[in-house]
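Lab meeting, item 3. Inverse folding demo.
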C-alpha cells in the first residue's frame, strides 16, 4: 500500500579508495559512516554529552554539516543512534560503586544458556563492552539483567576513536555485525510490562483477518543474515496484536514465508509463531480496533525530561512538569533559517495552480540535500525527507525533481535521501494511517532510512477525502495526524493546502486549522509573470516572517521535459519579472499597432516579437512571450484569437475583435 520510492537507491556508493582521507581521525570516522548511510552527530570533547541542541535527533549524513561540526571543534567525539542505523548495542558495564564486572557476569550466564555468534565489539573507556547486532528495539536499562543495558531506538553510543576522560573507545572484536539472537528479542519483549493488556473479545473476525493480510503483504521478506529472525518475530507479534489466532497466523503467513530467503521450514515457522504468541508484549488483539488517536502511542522514544516508558506515570496524558523539566527543554531552533522552526507543523496555502507544490518540493529537496531553500534560506538540519503525494507524483519524479537538481547544480551521481510515496494517509481511515506510519517505522528499523527530518503531505484535501474541512471536529482529526507524525519521528510536517474560492482570504476550511498549525505560510502568485510572494500570517513562539519575493524560471531537461524552479528575488528583480508579464491591454495595443483588425490577422510569433520590443524570432524573450500568449489564449486573451491552435508555431492567428459600431 505504501512504498518509499528513492531514485538514489539505484546509485552505487563510491568505493572506499575513492574517498579522501581526512587527517582528523574523528572527522574521518564520521564521514566514513555517513557515506554508507549511517547518520552521526558530535558529542563534547572528552565527554559523552551531545554537542548539538537536539542530541541524536540532529544526526545526519550530510557531509557539509558534518564538516562544519568538526571545524567548530576538531576534538568533538563521534556518536550515533544505533536504532537509526538498524542496530542494537548490548552495553555491558561495571558496577559504578564496587567496580565489579556485573554486566560481563550477567552476559556470560545468558550466553552459556542460549549461545551466541561472534559480533563486532567495542571496548569502552569505563572497562565495559559494546556488542553490536543487526536489529532494532527500544533503548532500555537492565531489561536483560544487572549491568546489561540496551542502546538502540531513542538512545546513542560513542564510537571509536572517541575519547572520554582521557581514555579512548577501541575496537575489540573487529568482525562483522551479526543478527540479533532471537532469545534476546524474546527476553526484551517478555520483560516489559504489557502496554495494552486488553484482548479482543473475538479473534479471526473478517476485519481482523483482512488487516493482518494487509500488514503481511506490505512486509518485506525475511532474509537470512539480514535480521530475518528478528523481522519474522516482530511480524508475528503485529499479526497477533491485530486479533488473529495462532492457527490463523500460521495460515496467513505461509504465502509470505515462501518469499523469504530462504523460507522457514514449516515446523520452524510454527515454532516462531508459538514463541511470539507466548512472549509478545501486548495482549492478543490489543490493536484490533485501535482508534486513530492510539496509532502513535508507545512507539516514540522517551524524551529525556519525561518519566521512562515503563513508569506508570507515563500512562497519563497529563504530566506535571517541574521547573527542572522546564529548564531542560531545548531552545527553539530553526529547520530553515527565518522560515520554518524545527520540529513544527507547517501549512503552505494558495489558490489552485499557484505554485505552492513547487514551493513545498523546493523546501523538501533543500532539506534532503543541504542546499539553500529557494537558493537563499540556509537549512540547519539536513536529512531524509518523505513526500506523501496525493497527486502528480509522476511529474514530481520525472520532471520537477530532476529540474530542481539540475538548476541547483546537484551532480547526477549524488544520492539524496528524498523519498516519494504515491499516496497520502486517509484521515478518516485509522487502518490507512496506521499503514503509512508503519511503513516509515519499518524503513527506519530496517536501516533503509534514518528518522525523517521533514514529512510533506500534498495535499490536505486528499488526506481529508470524505471529511468536511469546515467541520472543527474533522479539522482536528487532520491536525492530530500532523502532530502525531511530528511527535513520532521528531519531524517537521509540512502540509500543502488550498485557499477558499470567490475571493475568500486565508486557509480554506475550519478556523481550527489556523489555531492548530505552528506556522502558516501564504503564497500569492502571478501565473503569467511566473512570480510569487510568500508571507507568514502566523509563527508560533516567533515573529511573523516578512513577505519575500520569488521568481520562476523554466528549466529544460534533456529528455524534452521541462519544469519550473523558483528562486528568492530582491525587489528590483521581482518587479522586473512582473513587468515582463503580458496584460490584455498589452495584447490589444500590439494588435492595433500591427494593424491586425477588421479581419486582418497576425501569427503568435509576430505578436510575441512585437511584445518583446524587437523582431528576433530566436530571442529568449520572444519565446517566453509566445509561451505566455499560448497559456492565455483560451482564458485572458481569448477575445483576440481569430483561429485557435495549441500554442507556439501551430497556426494560431490573432486579431482585434470587430466592434458592433464598426460592423454597422
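The presenter then showed the designed sequence:
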Amino acid at each position: 500500500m505504501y512504498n518509499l520510492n528513492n531514485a538514489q537507491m539505484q546509485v552505487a556508493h563510491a568505493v572506499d579508495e575513492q574517498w579522501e582521507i581526512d587527517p582528523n581521525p574523528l572527522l574521518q570516522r564520521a564521514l566514513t559512516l555517513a557515506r554508507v548511510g549511517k547518520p552521526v552527530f558530535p558529542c563534547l570533547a572528552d565527554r559523552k554529552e551531545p554537542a548539538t541542541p537536539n542530541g541524536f535527533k540532529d544526526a545526519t549524513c550530510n557531509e557539509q554539516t558534518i564538516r562544519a561540526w568538526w571545524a567548530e571543534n576538531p576534538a568533538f567525539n563521534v556518536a550515533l543512534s544505533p536504532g537509526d542505523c538498524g542496530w542494537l548495542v548490548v552495553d555491558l558495564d561495571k558496577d559504578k560503586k564496587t567496580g565489579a564486572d556485573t554486566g560481563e557476569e550477567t552476559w556470560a550466564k545468558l550466553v552459556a544458556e542460549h549461545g551466541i555468534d561472534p559480533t563486532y565489539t567495542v571496548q569502552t573507556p569505563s572497562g565495559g563492552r559494546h556488542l553490536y547486532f543487526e536489529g532494532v528495539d527500544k533503548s532500555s536499562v537492565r531489561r536483560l539483567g544487572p549491568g546489561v543495558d540496551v542502546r538502540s531506538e531513542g538512545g546513542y553510543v560513542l564510537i571509536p576513536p572517541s575519547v572520554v576522560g582521557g581514555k579512548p573507545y577501541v575496537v575489540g572484536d573487529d568482525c562483522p555485525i551479526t543478527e540479533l539472537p532471537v532469545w534476546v528479542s524474546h527476553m526484551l519483549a517478555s520483560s516489559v510490562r504489557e502496554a495494552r493488556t486488553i484482548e479482543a473479545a473475538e479473534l479471526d473476525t473478517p476485519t481482523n483477518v483482512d488487516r493482518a493480510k494487509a500488514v503481511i503483504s506490505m512486509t518485506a521478506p525475511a532474509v537470512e543474515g539480514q535480521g530475518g529472525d528478528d523481522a519474522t518475530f516482530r511480524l508475528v507479534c503485529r499479526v497477533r496484536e491485530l486479533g488473529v489466532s495462532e492457527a490463523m497466523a500460521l495460515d496467513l503467513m505461509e504465502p509470505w514465508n515462501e518469499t523469504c530467503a530462504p523460507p522457514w521450514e514449516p515446523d520452524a515457522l510454527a515454532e516462531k509463531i508459538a514463541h511470539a504468541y507466548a512472549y509478545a508484549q501486548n495482549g492478543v488483539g490489543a490493536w484490533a480496533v485501535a482508534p486513530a488517536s492510539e496509532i502513535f502511542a508507545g512507539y516514540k522514544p522517551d524524551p529525556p525530561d519525561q518519566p521512562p516508558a515503563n513508569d506508570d506515570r507515563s500512562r497519563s496524558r497529563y504530566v506535571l512538569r517541574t521547573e527542572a523539566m522546564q529548564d531542560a527543554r531545548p531552545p527553539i531552533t530553526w529547520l530553515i533559517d527565518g522560515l520554518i522552526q524545527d520540529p513544527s507543523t507547517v501549512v503552505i496555502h494558495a489558490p489552485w495552480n499557484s505554485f505552492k507544490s513547487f514551493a513545498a518540493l523546493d523546501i523538501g529537496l533543500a532539506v534532503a540535500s543541504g542546499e539553500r531553500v529557494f537558493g537563499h534560506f540556509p537549512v540547519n538540519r539536513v536529512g531524509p525527507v518523505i513526500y506523501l503525494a496525493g497527486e502528480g507524483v509522476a511529474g514530481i519524479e520525472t520532471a520537477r525533481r530532476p529540474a530542481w537538481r539540475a538548476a541547483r547544480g546537484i551532480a547526477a551521481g549524488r544520492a539524496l535521501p528524498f523519498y516519494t510515496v504515491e499516496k497520502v494517509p486517509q484521515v478518516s481511515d485509522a487502518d490507512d494511517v496506521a499503514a503509512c506510519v508503519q511503513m516509515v517505522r519499518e524503513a527506519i528499523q530496517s536501516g533503509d532510512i534514518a528518522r525523517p527530518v521533514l514529512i510533506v503531505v500534498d495535499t490536505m484535501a486528499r488526506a481529508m477525502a470524505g471529511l468536511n474541512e469546515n467541520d472543527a471536529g474533522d479539522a482536528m482529526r487532520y491536525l492530530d495526524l500532523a502532530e502525531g507524525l511530528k511527535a513520532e519521528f521528531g519531524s517537521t510536517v509540512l502540509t500543502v493546502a488550498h485557499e477558499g474560492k470567490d475571493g475568500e482570504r486565508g486557509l480554506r476550511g475550519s478556523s481550527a486549522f489556523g489555531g492548530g498549525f505552528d506556522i502558516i505560510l501564504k503564497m500569492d502568485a502571478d501565473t503569467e509573470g511566473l512570480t510569487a510572494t510568500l508571507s507568514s500570517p502566523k509563527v508560533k513562539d516567533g515573529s511573523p516572517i516578512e513577505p519575500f519575493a520569488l521568481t520562476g524560471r523554466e528549466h529544460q531537461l534533456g529528455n524534452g521535459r521541462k519544469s519550473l524552479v523558483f528562486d528568492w528575488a530582491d525587489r528590483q528583480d521581482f518587479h522586473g519579472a512582473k513587468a515582463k508579464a503580458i496584460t490584455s491591454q498589452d495584447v490589444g495595443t500590439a494588435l492595433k499597432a500591427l494593424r491586425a483588425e477588421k479581419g486582418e490577422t497576425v501569427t503568435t510569433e509576430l505578436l510575441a516579437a512585437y511584445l518583446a520590443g524587437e523582431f528576433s524570432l530566436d530571442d529568449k524573450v520572444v519565446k517566453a512571450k509566445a509561451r505566455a500568449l499560448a497559456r492565455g489564449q483560451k482564458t485572458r486573451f481569448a477575445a483576440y484569437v481569430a483561429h485557435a491552435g495549441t500554442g507556439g508555431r501551430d497556426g494560431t492567428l490573432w486579431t482585434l475583435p470587430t466592434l458592433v459600431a464598426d460592423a454597422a
